[in-house]
Protein backbone atom coordinates (compact mmCIF):
# COMPACT_ATOMS: atom_id res chain seq x y z
CA UNK A 1 0.00 0.00 0.00
CA UNK A 2 1.40 3.44 0.98
CA UNK A 3 2.40 5.65 3.90
CA UNK A 4 1.37 9.24 4.52
CA UNK A 5 1.45 12.03 7.06
CA UNK A 6 -0.55 15.21 7.60
CA UNK A 7 0.68 18.16 9.65
CA UNK A 8 -1.23 21.17 10.98
CA UNK A 9 0.21 23.69 13.41
CA UNK A 10 3.13 26.06 13.84
CA UNK A 11 5.03 26.59 10.55
CA UNK A 12 7.98 24.19 10.38
CA UNK A 13 10.45 23.08 7.74
CA UNK A 14 9.21 20.04 5.84
CA UNK A 15 12.40 18.19 6.73
CA UNK A 16 11.40 18.21 10.41
CA UNK A 17 8.95 15.39 9.64
CA UNK A 18 10.13 14.03 6.29
CA UNK A 19 13.74 13.40 7.32
CA UNK A 20 14.64 14.15 10.94
CA UNK A 21 12.57 11.76 13.10
CA UNK A 22 14.07 8.36 13.83
CA UNK A 23 11.24 6.74 11.85
CA UNK A 24 10.60 9.61 9.46
CA UNK A 25 8.45 9.29 6.37
CA UNK A 26 11.61 8.89 4.28
CA UNK A 27 12.76 6.09 6.59
CA UNK A 28 9.34 4.48 6.17
CA UNK A 29 9.80 4.51 2.40
CA UNK A 30 12.42 1.79 2.95
CA UNK A 31 11.57 0.38 6.38
CA UNK A 32 7.83 0.53 6.99
CA UNK A 33 6.96 -1.42 10.12
CA UNK A 34 3.16 -1.46 9.85
CA UNK A 35 2.40 -1.37 6.15
CA UNK A 36 1.50 -4.21 3.82
CA UNK A 37 4.88 -3.69 2.14
CA UNK A 38 8.16 -2.82 3.84
CA UNK A 39 9.23 -0.67 0.88
CA UNK A 40 7.22 2.19 -0.59
CA UNK A 41 9.28 3.23 -3.60
CA UNK A 42 6.76 3.87 -6.40
CA UNK A 43 6.81 7.63 -6.20
CA UNK A 44 6.20 10.31 -3.61
CA UNK A 45 4.65 13.71 -3.17
CA UNK A 46 4.20 16.62 -0.80
CA UNK A 47 1.55 19.34 -0.94
CA UNK A 48 1.73 22.44 1.23
CA UNK A 49 0.17 25.81 1.81
CA UNK A 50 2.49 28.79 1.80
CA UNK A 51 2.11 31.96 3.82
CA UNK A 52 1.01 35.25 2.33
CA UNK A 53 3.16 37.11 4.87
CA UNK A 54 6.08 36.30 7.13
CA UNK A 55 4.85 33.97 9.92
CA UNK A 56 5.81 36.52 12.61
CA UNK A 57 3.48 39.20 11.26
CA UNK A 58 -0.07 39.58 12.56
CA UNK A 59 -2.78 38.67 10.12
CA UNK A 60 -0.74 35.93 8.49
CA UNK A 61 -2.91 33.49 6.51
CA UNK A 62 -2.25 30.48 4.33
CA UNK A 63 -2.17 31.02 0.59
CA UNK A 64 -5.29 30.01 -1.30
CA UNK A 65 -3.93 27.24 -3.51
CA UNK A 66 -1.52 24.58 -2.26
CA UNK A 67 1.79 23.82 -3.95
CA UNK A 68 2.60 20.30 -5.18
CA UNK A 69 5.93 18.57 -5.61
CA UNK A 70 5.74 14.98 -6.85
CA UNK A 71 8.21 12.50 -8.27
CA UNK A 72 8.09 8.99 -9.70
CA UNK A 73 11.30 7.66 -8.14
CA UNK A 74 11.86 6.43 -4.59
CA UNK A 75 11.63 9.22 -2.04
CA UNK A 76 14.82 8.11 -0.29
CA UNK A 77 16.96 8.87 -3.35
CA UNK A 78 15.48 12.17 -4.55
CA UNK A 79 17.95 14.98 -3.93
CA UNK A 80 15.49 17.65 -5.08
CA UNK A 81 13.04 16.58 -2.37
CA UNK A 82 15.79 16.83 0.23
CA UNK A 83 16.74 20.33 -0.93
CA UNK A 84 13.14 21.48 -0.97
CA UNK A 85 12.40 20.00 2.46
CA UNK A 86 15.26 21.84 4.16
CA UNK A 87 14.27 25.21 2.71
CA UNK A 88 10.43 25.16 2.70
CA UNK A 89 8.26 25.78 5.75
CA UNK A 90 4.52 25.46 6.15
CA UNK A 91 1.90 25.26 8.85
CA UNK A 92 -0.20 22.77 6.91
CA UNK A 93 1.08 20.04 4.59
CA UNK A 94 0.42 16.49 3.43
CA UNK A 95 3.15 14.07 2.34
CA UNK A 96 2.86 10.60 0.78
CA UNK A 97 5.09 7.73 -0.29
CA UNK A 98 3.55 5.31 -2.75
CA UNK A 99 3.48 1.56 -3.17
CA UNK A 100 1.45 0.92 -6.30
CA UNK A 101 -1.45 -1.53 -6.18
CA UNK A 102 -1.27 -2.07 -9.94
CA UNK A 103 -1.63 1.28 -11.70
CA UNK A 104 1.42 2.75 -13.48
CA UNK A 105 4.25 4.53 -11.73
CA UNK A 106 3.84 8.01 -13.17
CA UNK A 107 3.67 11.52 -11.77
CA UNK A 108 -0.09 11.91 -12.28
CA UNK A 109 -0.63 8.86 -10.08
CA UNK A 110 1.43 10.23 -7.18
CA UNK A 111 -0.30 11.76 -4.17
CA UNK A 112 -1.31 14.30 -2.98
CA UNK A 113 -4.06 14.99 -5.48
CA UNK A 114 -5.17 18.60 -5.77
CA UNK A 115 -8.28 20.43 -6.92
CA UNK A 116 -8.56 24.12 -6.15
CA UNK A 117 -7.78 24.59 -2.46
CA UNK A 118 -8.19 20.88 -1.69
CA UNK A 119 -5.53 18.21 -1.18
CA UNK A 120 -6.12 14.45 -0.75
CA UNK A 121 -3.92 11.47 0.17
CA UNK A 122 -4.98 7.84 0.51
CA UNK A 123 -3.56 4.55 1.74
CA UNK A 124 -5.45 1.41 0.78
CA UNK A 125 -7.23 0.24 -2.35
CA UNK A 126 -10.51 -0.43 -4.06
CA UNK A 127 -10.62 -4.19 -4.51
CA UNK A 128 -11.00 -5.27 -8.17
CA UNK A 129 -10.76 -1.64 -9.22
CA UNK A 130 -10.48 -2.59 -12.88
CA UNK A 131 -13.92 -4.23 -12.65
CA UNK A 132 -15.56 -1.31 -10.86
CA UNK A 133 -13.66 1.56 -12.49
CA UNK A 134 -16.06 2.37 -15.31
CA UNK A 135 -19.11 2.70 -13.08
CA UNK A 136 -17.15 4.73 -10.53
CA UNK A 137 -15.65 7.13 -13.04
CA UNK A 138 -18.97 7.65 -14.83
CA UNK A 139 -20.43 8.98 -11.57
CA UNK A 140 -17.90 11.83 -11.39
CA UNK A 141 -19.42 15.25 -12.08
CA UNK A 142 -18.85 16.04 -15.80
CA UNK A 143 -17.46 19.44 -14.82
CA UNK A 144 -14.83 17.75 -12.63
CA UNK A 145 -13.96 14.93 -15.00
CA UNK A 146 -11.47 16.93 -17.14
CA UNK A 147 -9.32 17.54 -14.06
CA UNK A 148 -8.65 13.84 -13.48
CA UNK A 149 -5.14 13.27 -14.80
CA UNK A 150 -4.16 9.84 -13.49
CA UNK A 151 -5.48 6.29 -13.39
CA UNK A 152 -5.54 5.39 -9.68
CA UNK A 153 -8.43 4.37 -7.48
CA UNK A 154 -7.24 7.03 -5.01
CA UNK A 155 -7.84 9.87 -7.45
CA UNK A 156 -11.25 8.50 -8.41
CA UNK A 157 -12.18 8.42 -4.71
CA UNK A 158 -11.14 12.08 -4.41
CA UNK A 159 -13.21 13.19 -7.39
CA UNK A 160 -16.21 11.18 -6.23
CA UNK A 161 -15.95 12.93 -2.85
CA UNK A 162 -15.79 16.29 -4.66
CA UNK A 163 -18.82 15.25 -6.71
CA UNK A 164 -20.75 14.34 -3.54
CA UNK A 165 -20.11 17.71 -1.89
CA UNK A 166 -16.66 17.72 -0.29
CA UNK A 167 -16.66 21.53 -0.21
CA UNK A 168 -19.95 21.88 1.68
CA UNK A 169 -20.17 18.70 3.80
CA UNK A 170 -16.78 17.06 4.02
CA UNK A 171 -17.67 14.18 6.34
CA UNK A 172 -20.90 13.44 4.51
CA UNK A 173 -19.22 13.57 1.10
CA UNK A 174 -16.59 11.00 2.08
CA UNK A 175 -19.27 8.83 3.65
CA UNK A 176 -21.27 9.01 0.42
CA UNK A 177 -18.16 8.20 -1.60
CA UNK A 178 -17.49 5.12 0.53
CA UNK A 179 -21.14 4.04 0.37
CA UNK A 180 -21.17 4.44 -3.39
CA UNK A 181 -17.99 2.37 -3.83
CA UNK A 182 -19.50 -0.39 -1.71
CA UNK A 183 -22.78 -0.27 -3.62
CA UNK A 184 -20.98 -0.55 -6.97
CA UNK A 185 -18.92 -3.38 -5.54
CA UNK A 186 -22.04 -5.30 -4.50
CA UNK A 187 -23.56 -4.77 -7.95
CA UNK A 188 -20.51 -6.43 -9.49
CA UNK A 189 -20.20 -9.22 -6.93
CA UNK A 190 -17.12 -7.70 -5.28
CA UNK A 191 -17.36 -8.26 -1.55
CA UNK A 192 -15.72 -5.82 0.88
CA UNK A 193 -14.30 -3.56 -1.84
CA UNK A 194 -12.97 -0.59 0.14
CA UNK A 195 -9.84 -0.19 2.24
CA UNK A 196 -8.83 3.35 3.17
CA UNK A 197 -7.12 5.77 5.43
CA UNK A 198 -7.52 9.25 3.95
CA UNK A 199 -6.42 12.77 4.79
CA UNK A 200 -7.91 15.79 3.09
CA UNK A 201 -7.70 19.53 3.71
CA UNK A 202 -9.02 22.80 2.34
CA UNK A 203 -6.09 24.80 3.73
CA UNK A 204 -7.91 25.68 6.95
CA UNK A 205 -9.04 22.40 8.48
CA UNK A 206 -7.65 18.88 8.25
CA UNK A 207 -9.84 15.76 8.09
CA UNK A 208 -8.68 12.19 8.61
CA UNK A 209 -10.62 8.98 7.94
CA UNK A 210 -10.05 5.32 8.82
CA UNK A 211 -12.43 2.76 7.32
CA UNK A 212 -12.56 -0.55 5.48
CA UNK A 213 -15.43 -2.72 4.29
CA UNK A 214 -13.87 -5.67 6.08
CA UNK A 215 -13.56 -3.80 9.39
CA UNK A 216 -9.79 -4.28 9.58
CA UNK A 217 -8.44 -0.98 8.35
CA UNK A 218 -4.85 0.08 7.75
CA UNK A 219 -3.14 1.70 10.72
CA UNK A 220 -3.59 5.39 11.51
CA UNK A 221 -2.30 7.45 14.44
CA UNK A 222 -2.68 10.99 15.74
CA UNK A 223 -0.21 12.84 17.93
CA UNK A 224 -1.01 13.61 21.56
CA UNK A 225 -2.03 17.17 22.42
CA UNK A 226 1.00 19.45 22.83
CA UNK A 227 -0.14 20.63 26.25
CA UNK A 228 -0.07 17.02 27.45
CA UNK A 229 3.30 16.29 25.86
CA UNK A 230 4.84 19.35 27.55
CA UNK A 231 3.69 18.04 30.92
CA UNK A 232 5.06 14.58 30.16
CA UNK A 233 8.37 15.85 28.75
CA UNK A 234 9.08 19.32 30.18
CA UNK A 235 12.70 19.27 29.04
CA UNK A 236 11.96 18.48 25.40
CA UNK A 237 12.77 21.68 23.44
CA UNK A 238 10.69 20.68 20.40
CA UNK A 239 7.42 20.74 22.33
CA UNK A 240 8.12 24.23 23.67
CA UNK A 241 8.57 25.61 20.15
CA UNK A 242 5.19 24.45 18.81
CA UNK A 243 1.81 25.96 19.62
CA UNK A 244 -1.05 24.06 21.24
CA UNK A 245 -2.91 23.68 17.93
CA UNK A 246 -0.18 21.46 16.44
CA UNK A 247 -1.24 17.96 15.42
CA UNK A 248 0.26 15.24 13.24
CA UNK A 249 -1.72 12.39 11.67
CA UNK A 250 0.34 9.48 10.33
CA UNK A 251 0.04 6.00 8.87
CA UNK A 252 2.55 4.88 11.46
CA UNK A 253 4.36 6.71 14.27
CA UNK A 254 7.45 8.75 13.46
CA UNK A 255 9.22 7.57 16.62
CA UNK A 256 8.89 5.53 19.79
CA UNK A 257 8.35 8.28 22.36
CA UNK A 258 6.00 6.82 24.96
CA UNK A 259 2.57 8.43 24.97
CA UNK A 260 3.16 10.55 21.86
CA UNK A 261 0.96 8.60 19.44
CA UNK A 262 -2.62 7.40 19.70
CA UNK A 263 -4.31 4.90 17.34
CA UNK A 264 -7.31 6.28 15.50
CA UNK A 265 -10.29 3.98 16.17
CA UNK A 266 -11.73 1.72 13.50
CA UNK A 267 -14.45 3.29 11.33
CA UNK A 268 -13.90 6.85 12.50
CA UNK A 269 -13.12 10.35 11.32
CA UNK A 270 -11.23 13.20 12.93
CA UNK A 271 -11.15 16.95 12.35
CA UNK A 272 -8.12 19.06 13.26
CA UNK A 273 -9.05 22.72 13.50
CA UNK A 274 -8.65 25.81 15.66
CA UNK A 275 -9.96 25.10 19.14
CA UNK A 276 -11.13 21.63 20.09
CA UNK A 277 -10.55 18.82 17.62
CA UNK A 278 -13.31 16.35 16.78
CA UNK A 279 -13.45 12.56 16.68
CA UNK A 280 -16.55 10.80 15.38
CA UNK A 281 -17.88 7.58 13.90
CA UNK A 282 -17.58 7.10 10.13
CA UNK A 283 -20.66 5.51 8.53
CA UNK A 284 -20.76 4.98 4.75
CA UNK A 285 -24.07 5.83 3.11
CA UNK A 286 -25.26 5.63 -0.45
CA UNK A 287 -25.63 9.04 -2.15
UniProtKB/TrEMBL annotation:
Q: Which PANTHER family match?
A: GLUTAMINE AMIDOTRANSFERASE DUG3-RELATED
List the CDD domains hit by this protein, alphabetically: YafJ
Q: Name one GO molecular function term.
A: transferase activity
Its name, as the record gives it, is: Glutamine amidotransferase
Entry's EC annotation: 3.5.1.118
Q: Where is the Glutamine amidotransferase type-2 domain?
A: 2-287
Q: Which UniProt keywords apply?
A: Glutamine amidotransferase, Hydrolase, Transferase
Lineage top rank: taxon? Bacteria
Amino acid sequence: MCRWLAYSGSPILLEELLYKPVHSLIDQSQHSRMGVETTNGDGFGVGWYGLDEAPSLPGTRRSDEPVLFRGVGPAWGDQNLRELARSTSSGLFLAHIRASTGTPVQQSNCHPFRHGRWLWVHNGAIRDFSVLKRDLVMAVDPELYPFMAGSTDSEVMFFLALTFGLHEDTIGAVERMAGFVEAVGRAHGVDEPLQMTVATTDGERLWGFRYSSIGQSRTLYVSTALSTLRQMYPDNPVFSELDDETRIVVSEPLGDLKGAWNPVPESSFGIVEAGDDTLGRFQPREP
